[in-house]
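User: Before I run my own analysis I want an independent prediction to cross-check against. Here's the chain; please return only the C-alpha cells and, at the end, one sentence I can use as a sanity check.
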Amino acid sequence: MDTQLNTAMSSFVYNRIPTKVSRKDFNRYIDPHLKRPKTGPKPKLSLYKIFNYILYVLHTGMQWDQLKTKRNALHYTNVYKWHNRWSKDGSYQTLFKASIIQLHQTDQLDTSVLHGDGSNTVVKKGASASAILVISTRKVKKN
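Assistant: C-alpha cells:
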C-alpha cells in the first residue's frame, strides 16, 4: 500500500511560486509590463537578471543587504531600488492583472481554489460577537 501511496503522491503536481523565470518567459510575459525611467542611466545588468534577483530575495525572505550578486555585478541597493520603483509605479499590479487575464483566456484559471484570509480585516464597532470569529481570547466582550 505504501508503494501505491508514494506513486500517487509523486504524480501529484504542486503549484509553486517561481523562484526564477526563464529569459523567454520574462521577455514574453513580464518585460512588457515593467516600466522604465525616462531619464537617467541604464542599469548595468539586464532587467531580466534584476527581476530574478528580486524573486530570489522575496522567495528566501532574506534581508536586501544579504543579497550577493554574481561577481558583485550590482549592489543590492540597486536591486532594491528597481523593486521599490516597480511596486510604487504600478508595474507589479499591471503584471498581476495581465497574468490573471492570460490564465482566464487560456482556461487555466481555476477559481474553485481561491482562498481569502480575513485575519487582518478590521471589524466595525458594534458587530455582534456571534457574527465574527474571535481570534484573540484575551479581551472577548461577553454579552
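Sanity check: Residues 91-105 form the longest helix (15 residues).
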